[in-house]
Design goal:
By secondary structure, the chain is α+β, with helices and mostly antiparallel strands. It has two helices and seven strands; from the N terminus they run H-E-E-E-H-E-E-E-E. The chain has helices at about 5-50, 120-125; strands at about 70-75, 90-100, 110-115, 130, 145, 155-165, 175-180. The strands form two sheets. Strands 4-3-6-7 form a four-stranded antiparallel beta sheet. The longest helix has about 50 residues, at about 5-50.
């Protein structure tokens, strides 16, 4: 066999392998492109269903018609969930934000409003008889100090919070949380020591 024939066959074999590789690559690209188009179509359908009101935004509680992109949850008082026996006369309140959908992550709080009441029913009417902070322009969501009416021993307090997102849109109110005060003054301790009387032998 002449060197020319051998080179021709080798070249033909290389071309055949290259053709198979190119065909496989094109098939993979076509498959990837099809999957991408399906994902985009699905995302568009979801967006249309959300904006048309066919499927409400998932929120952990509160008004589904709120326009903000975040929800408020994980309410804590003095770092605790619904604590009892707090001995701090101006408790510190904290909460966390959660995006309503994956494409709305990274949202920033620009304001908050806190309501604190003696009864849950008052909060249902959006009234805070102990404290209504009003809208405060702040990104703070940790250790916000209670600035309402003076609190008393054994008092039960109920509270909720609402925030504004970076576009200035108000969120739904959070679920209601609570805390109770401990004994703040010596005079509030009315218990008596239990023990035997003094005996002298």
């Amino acid at each position: 066999m002449s060197p020319m024939c051998s080179a021709s066959r080798s070249f033909a074999a290389s071309n055949a392998r290259l053709h198979r590789v190119n065909l496989s690559t094109r098939q993979w690209c076509n498959c990837y492109l099809a999957c991408l188009l399906l994902s985009l179509a699905s995302a568009q359908a979801d967006a249309e269903s959300l904006t048309s009101g066919k499927r409400p935004l998932p929120t952990p509680g509160g008004d589904l018609n709120a326009s903000a992109s975040v929800a408020v949850g994980n309410l804590r008082c003095e770092y605790l969930i619904d604590p009892r026996g707090i001995d701090v006369v101006e408790p510190r309140l904290s909460w966390r934000l959660a995006a309503l959908s994956p494409d709305q992550r990274g949202q920033r709080q620009t304001g908050y409003r806190i309501l604190v009441a003696t009864r849950v029913e008052s909060l249902r009417e959006d009234r805070g008889d102990l404290w209504d902070s009003g809208w405060v322009a702040s990104g703070q969501s940790v250790n916000v100090v209670y600035r309402g009416a003076p609190l008393h021993s054994r008092q039960r307090c109920f509270w909720k919070v609402q925030v504004r997102d970076e576009a200035g849109r108000a969120s739904a109110w959070s679920s209601v949380a609570s805390w109770s005060m401990g004994l703040l003054h010596r005079r509030d301790w009315t218990a008596q020591w239990i023990g035997a009387g003094v005996e002298f032998v």
